[in-house]
Amino acid sequence: MIQPKINYRAVAVLLLCLLFLSGCATPVGVRMVSPREAYQGSNANPLGAGVASDQAKYVLNRYYLLQKFDRDPAAVIADLHEKALKDDRRDILYALAETSYLYAGELAKGTSLEDRGLAPDYFLLSSLYAYYFLLEERSEPSPTAFDHRARNAVDFYNYGLWQGLATGVEGGLVLEGRTRKLPFGQLSMSLDTANLPWKMEDFEKFEPADKYEIRGIAVRNRTPGVGLPLIGIKKKSSDMFSSGQAVPVTAFLRIRGNLASLSAGGATAALELYSAQDTSMLPLKDRLLPLETDLTTPLAYVLEGSEVWDFGLSAFLGREINKTADGLYMSEPYRPGRIPVVFVHGTASSPIWWTEMWNTLRFDPLIRQKFQFWYFVYTSNKLVVMSAADLRDALREKVAELDPQGKDTALQQMVVIGHSQGGLLTKLTAVETGESLVRAMSGKNLDSLKMPEETKAKVRRLAIIQPLPFVKQVIFLSTPHRGSFLSKRWARNLATMLVRLPATLLQTTTDVYGYLTDDIKRILGGKSVMTSADGMSPDNPLLTTLAEIPLAPWVKGHSIIAVKGDGDPKRGNDGVVEYTSAHLDGMESEFIVRSNHSSQLNPLAIDEVRRILVEHLRASSQDMVKEK
Q1: Running DSSP on this structure, what letter comes out for residue 597?
Q2: What are 487-503's pLDDT values in tens digits?
Q3: pLDDT digits (tens, 9 = 90+) for 258-272
Q4: Which CATH code is given to the segment(s) 305-488+532-627?
Q5: CA angle, 392 then 393 then 394, to 5°
Q6: What is the three-state SS of 395-430?
Q7: What angle in degrees, to the nearest 10, is found between the helix axes of 54-62 and 91-108?
Q8: What are the tens digits of pLDDT across the range 308-335?
Q9: Lower Cβ count inside 10 Å, N or C end of the chain?
Q10: Looking at the whole model, is its pTM more than 0.70?
Q11: Residue 36's Cα: distance from chain center in Å?
């Protein structure tokens, strides 16, 4: 027997290889990861990581389609679609939502027009498959809230709807009734705007809210649910604050017909548009679904690059070119049964400085459902009593216009919130002055002044004030009830030199100058032209008198006083107003916030406003029940 010849060199190489392999990882094993890596790995999906999830891979692998999907995704999706028509397992629908979304993304990045044109159809398919996974009746029950796939499927529905409707010029959204031919069947869509308080012709276009990041606002307020959050961009208006130039809308595609109907071309759907300010839940069959909303992005969108940022200072200086008229503006359409909250800005300011407060308050479901927000715009260089008279007139006219028959009891529970000078205007909606301001100004009662009747009528409107019966709560933020220590004579003289006053103000101040007391004339330094800076001087006897006048018996007042630093608040100030000037006796509440003068931006001050509104809602609800 011949013994084989042994190749000792080959044996040595083989042994070395075996020794080398014994120190390497085995084909199957584990690797230690951090909790963050573990979470990212277990939650990887097409939306976050651009890859299929383990749950989708499970289905693909079950049918031996995992590798084929990389080579021919369209064929795999077609194969899964056919299986879903015959196989009742719900996980096939989930895998279809993921694979359609992944393939749509690849098509959207393609170089050919044909591929890019096909992408919206697959995105829409992803949305439809997700809808069926969540809601179609099958023998297998719908996923529970503990199933990761449920939230993922909602996201595929929402994001698929965004990109599935982006069939307009340069990817613009097309929100209209039409029939969409899809790779598998077709869908006939109608447009339903019954729950939209605006007309479609009021809008210039709609943009997906998630298309934008925000800046300059502390929190992006969103609610999770189903639907595509939109920015409804209204056609340009000269009233930059009226009813909102961009409003939060959510689109929901309600599908009628199952997967088989879709394949046969018989499925229909209604593209429903909702005001995100009014609707939070959607009825669907025997359940209620939460609506996905984004209340902040439309607000940030309309303020991006807006000239309104310069409005406050330019209006104060009298140099604005395209000035929005002074007056009362509504941030949204009038809704009976909701209590008005009126924001009144301060000196050289504008309504945009209420953005942080408005963004926070209206995100609260209770506040959003029970209150409506209005803004008063005024040229803040005018005398306080003149702007206050305009505010009272505007509020009376708006209440009469909206509710001529007096049936809406909510309008009779109005809350007025004023910051800085706006707080002085606010107080002048809620006090009965009698002749006290006239005497402080002239030393006499009005009838004793020998002035033309026309001038007396002006003075009576400005200084003999009756409280508005429908104002029930007033909130003062950083308000200089006894003047600002910054309103020194040099500052007032500088304001007089810089400010261009309107002719009506010049005429009014000139008319009354001769009737002023010598003390007031000394404060003015002999100049007959008066601005709001003169009105907020600590030496002004009108302010001293107004500070001592109590609110009307039916009005509750609240002071939010800003004080910088950590010292004794009663000895402090906010950089503009001393505590001793902002404090008023007889208030329902007083809240100290450690802040500079812009206290309306402070989260603690905003939360205090919310507390006041909730308390007012409780009290006013009891009052309205008694009236009925």
Answers
A1: S
A2: 554 344 433 443 444 54
A3: 999 999 999 999 999
A4: 3.40.50.1820
A5: 90
A6: HHHHHHHHCCCCCCHHHHHEEEEEECHHHHHHHCCC
A7: 110
A8: 545 544 443 344 544 567 889 888 889 9
A9: N
A10: yes
A11: 32
